[in-house]
Amino acid sequence: MAGGRPIRALNVAEKPSVAKAVSGILSKNPSSGGLRVRDGRSRYNKIFEFNYTIQNQQFQMSFTSVTGHLMELEFEERYRKWHSCDPVQLYQAAVKKYVPEDKLDIKRTLEEEARKCQWLILWLDCDREGENIAFEVVEVCTQANRNLNIWRARFSALIDREIHYSMQHLVRPNQLFADAVDVRQEIDLRIGASFTRFQTMLLRDAFNLDFTSDDKNIILSYGPCQFPTLGFVVERFWEIQSHEPEEFWTINCTHNSEEGIATFNWMRGHLFDYTCAAIIYEMCVQESTATVTRVRQQEKLKYPPHPLSTIELEKRASRYFRMSSEHTMKVAEDLYQAGFISYPRTETDCFSERTDLRMMVQEQQGHPVWGSYAQRLLDPEAGLWRNPSGGGHDDKAHPPIHPTKFSAGENGWSQDHHKLYELVVRHFLACVSQPAVGAETTVDIDIAGELFSASGRMIMAKNYLDVYRFESWGGSMIPTYNFGQQFAPTTLTLDSGVTRPPPLLSEADLLSCMDKAGIGTDATMHDHIKKLLDRFYATKDSNTRFSPTELGEALVMGYDDMGYELWKPYLRAMMESDMKAVSMGTKSKTEVLETCLQQMKACFVDAKSNKGKLFESMAVFFERSNRSSINEQNTVAEVVRRCSLCQESDMVLRRKPDGNFMVGCTGFPHCKNVVWLPGSVSEAVVTTNICSSCAPGCIGGCDDILRQLVEICGTGSRNISSVHGRGTGHTPSSSSAQRSNSRGQGACLYCRQTGHSSDVCPSRVSRGRNVRSPEADAQEGESSIPCSSCGAPCVLRTANTASNRGRKFYSCRSQECNFFVWEDNINEGGRVARGNISRTASNPSRSGGLWQGWPEWKTSKRCRICVCNR
DNA sequence: GCAAGGTC
User: Fold this and answer.
1) Given this model, what pLDDT does residue A819 score?
2) Cβ pair A837, A557 in contact under 8 A
3) Strand A290-302 with A119-123, pairing
4) pLDDT at A157
5) Rounded to whole angstroms, how far apart are CA atoms A5 and A20?
6) How far apart are the first and last CA of chain A?
7) Distance of A101 CA from B8 C1′ (whole Å)
8) Which domains occur in chain A, in start order?
C-alpha cells in the first residue's frame, strides 16, 4: 500500500468501553494528532477520532460502538399474536431480523459515519456472538455505503501491543461463525415460542394456579436453557424424595496420650449389616491392643484459586456472601462501569503473558487492610510471588476479572459493592501468591486384624491464605506415634448412623451443573436461574438452595411421562455441537436448521398429541379450574384460512367454554367475522381436503345431508365436521351460520349419546379414573396384596391397551384410591422408584419408596456387607 | 405475552 491521501475508516466495537479503550491505545502516538471525541446519535455510544498509519498508509479513524446485538429476530407480524396461528406453524412461519426501536439511534450513527468512509473495521468481541454482531453492523453500513472495504480486527485483550498488532494484521470477517449464531437464534425462537404458547394456553386456564393473585397473566415458558436448568433442580429434589435412610454401623477408636487425643477411623468405613459389624467389634474388644503399622509424614500444598471467571465470581459470591448470581452481576456491572474492576463477563481463567500483573499489585499497596500483603508480594525477599496458574479456559475476548483501579471504598458503595470489590482484589492477590504449605501425618493401627487410621495437619506457611480470608485449611494436630508402638485404646465403640440424602442444589451447585452441561453463557446463566424464580418454577431458601415448585415439578413430570428429555441438557448439548460444526464449516447452516427444526417439530406435534400427560401431572398438584369446562380444547386455535372480510388476520377454529365450535377471525374485536358451528358438532378438525362440490372455504354447508342432520335432527350421527382450510374463497354468510347454531340439547361430548348433557355424562364419572390408569380392558389377575397407599387389596392385572398390552400392573380395588403401579417398576424388596407411582395415578402420597405390606416372598435379600477394603 | 444472546 502506498502513501497518499488519507483513507477514512469507520471502526466499530461491541461496547462503548472497548471503543474508548482501543481508541486510547491507538491514539497514544503523537502522529495521531490527539484523541478527539464527539457525540453520536446515541447518548451512550460516543465517536472517537484520531489519525493512524497502517502499513505506510495514512488513515483518518472514526471509532464508535454498538451495545451488543444491533438486531433481533422475530416472527413476521401476522404470527406475533398468540392466537394468530397454531403454535406448530411457528416451525415454518417467516422470521425477520430487524433493528429494534431502542437501537435505531445507533443504526443512524453507523449509517451517517459509513457514508463518509471507505473502510469499515470491525472490533467486535472475538467470539461467535461477536462475529454475528459484526455482520449486523456490516448489513447496516453497506446499506448506506455499498463500496465499503470491510475488515476485521482480531484481538484478545486490551493491551497496547496486541491492539497495534491486530490493526496492522486485519483479516476478513468469518461468515461461518456468524452463521452458527443465526442458527441458534432461529432454533431458540421457534422452539421457545411454540412450546411456551402451547403449554401456557393449554394449562394456564385449566388449573387453579394459586401461587399468584394474577394467574391469568402467568406465562408457562419453555426455553432450551431455562428448562434444563429447572431439570437439574427437579432431579435433585426427586433424588432426595426417593432416598430411604438406611442404618449402618461403624467402629470408632480414640487414644488419649500426654500430647493429646487421636481419633482413629475404621478403614472399612461402615457396614450395613449389624451382625457382621457386631462380630468384628467383639473381636476387637476381646483383643484390643493396638499396634502402629505405619507412620507417614508428607508435605502437602494447598493451591490458590485460578484467576477469576464470571461463573467462579458468581459461585464464590453465593458461597461467601450468599449473594444471588443475578445480584452479583448487577453489582459487578456497577463496579465495572465505574472503572474499579475489569469486564465482568468472561470465561477466561488465565492471564495473558503480556499482562502487567505486578503493576496491578502495586496499585493495592496503599490499602489499609490488604496493602501490607501487596507490599510483601512485591518484595523479592519474601518469596511470596508466584506466576498464576491458569484453569485452561480462554474466551479470547476478555481477561480474567481483576481490579483495575485502587479503592479503599467509595461513598456511594453499598455493603455488597464493598464485599465484591474485596473479593475481586483478594482473589487476584491470592492468584499471584505461593500455595499454603502443610505437614500432614497419617498413622495406621491394627486391632485384632482390623485397620484404623488417623491423620493430622500442621500449617507450615499460610501464604495465599493470609489474604484469601474466605478459605481455610482445616486439620488438627495428632500426638507422635512410632512404627511398632503398641497401646490400649481409650475408647472402642460400635456406633450406628443412617445414610442421608444429598442436599438441595445450592446456587453454586446449579451454576456448576449448567457450566458442565453447557447451558447458557457466562453472561446469561444468572438470567436462566432468575427466570425459574420469576416463572414460579422454583424457589430459593435462605441457604441459597433451590426446590422446584409444584408447577415446576408438574411440568417436568409431564414431559418425562411423555418420554421426552426436553427437561434434560442433551438437546442444548446437541445444538451446541451442531453450532460448532457450522462454525467450523463441516455442516451447513441450512442443513443444521432443517434437521433440527424438523426433529423439534416432530417432537412438538407428538407432545401436543400427548398433552394428556401434562394434564395428568398438573392434576396431581392442582385443582382443575372452572374458568373453562373443556379447557384443553378451548385453547386450540387451528388456522382455517385468511379472513375474507378484513383480509388481514386468520380465521381460526376454536372451541368456546360452552363446548361449541366456532371459526372466528383473530382480528377480533377489530374484525367480527365469525361462523358458529352447530352445538351438535362434537369434534371439528381443520383438514387440507377440499370439498368437491364447491370452492375452498366451504365449512360443510354445501353438504345437504350434514346440514340437515346438524340443523334439524341435531343428533350428531355425523358428528365430525371437517373444516376446509387453506383456501381463499368466500366465507358463507355468518348470519345464516349463526342461525343454524343449535344451542339446545346436542350429543354428549363424552359418550356421544343424546339424552343428557356433557356435564352430567355418566361415562365421565367413572372415566375420571379410567383415563388415569391403563386398566381399560384389563383382565383381573389372581394375586392380592395390601395397597401401598390405603391398605385395601391390590390386584395384579394385565393391561390390554394398544401401547401396553400384556404389561402387568398392580391396582387398588378401592373406589376411593387411585393407586396403581406397573409391576416392572417395582424393584427388589418392593422398592418403587420415585414418580413411578404418582405420575399417572393420583396417589395422594406422591412419593415412591418401600411398598408397605409388600409380601415377604417377593423380597429378595441383598448382601450389603463390604469385605473388600483390604 | 414467548427464547437466548449481546449490552447500558
Assistant:
1) 54
2) no
3) unpaired
4) 75
5) 26
6) 76
7) 15
8) 7-173 (3.40.50.140), 186-242+534-621 (1.10.460.10), 247-303+437-498 (2.70.20.10), 310-434 (1.10.290.10), 637-759 (no CATH), 772-858 (no CATH)
pLDDT digits (tens, 9 = 90+) for A403-456: 999 999 999 899 999 999 999 999 999 999 999 999 999 999 999 999 999 999
**DSSP-assigned states of every residue in A553-617:** HHHHHHHHHHT--TTSTHHHHHHHHHHHHHHHTSS-HHHHHHHHHHHHHHHHHHHHHTHHHHHHH
- d(C-alpha A620, C-alpha A331), whole Å: 41
Nucleotide nearest to A191 (CA to C1'): B3
Find the nucleotide nearest A181 (Cα to C1′).
B5
Those nucleotides of strand B lying less than 7 Å from any protein Cβ are: 1-8
Report residue A103 as a C-alpha cell: 437501537
* Distance, C-alpha A157 to centroid of its chain: 30
Q: How many CB atoms lie within 10 A of CB A867?
A: 9
Three cell numbers written together for A852? 408397605
CA distance A864 to A275: 12
| Residues listed for chain A | 870
Contacts of A755-762 with C-beta under 8 Å, sequence gap 24+, read A758/A659, A759/A629
A776 and A763 Cβ atoms separated by less than 8 Å: no
Confidence of residue A397 (pLDDT cuts 50, 70, 90): confident
Determine the angle formed by the axes of helices A415-431 and A310-321, rounding to 10 degrees: 120
On the 0-12 / 13-18 / 19+ scale of CB atoms within 10 A, A637 is buried
Nucleotide B7 C1' to residue A26 CA (A):
24
What beta strand segments (E) does A677-825 contain?
683-687, 720-724, 784-786, 793-798, 808-812, 820-822
- Give the integer Cα–Cα distance in Å for A196 and A222: 5
Instruction: Return d(Cα A546, Cα A548) in angstroms, integer.
Output: 7
Residue A343 designated active-site: yes
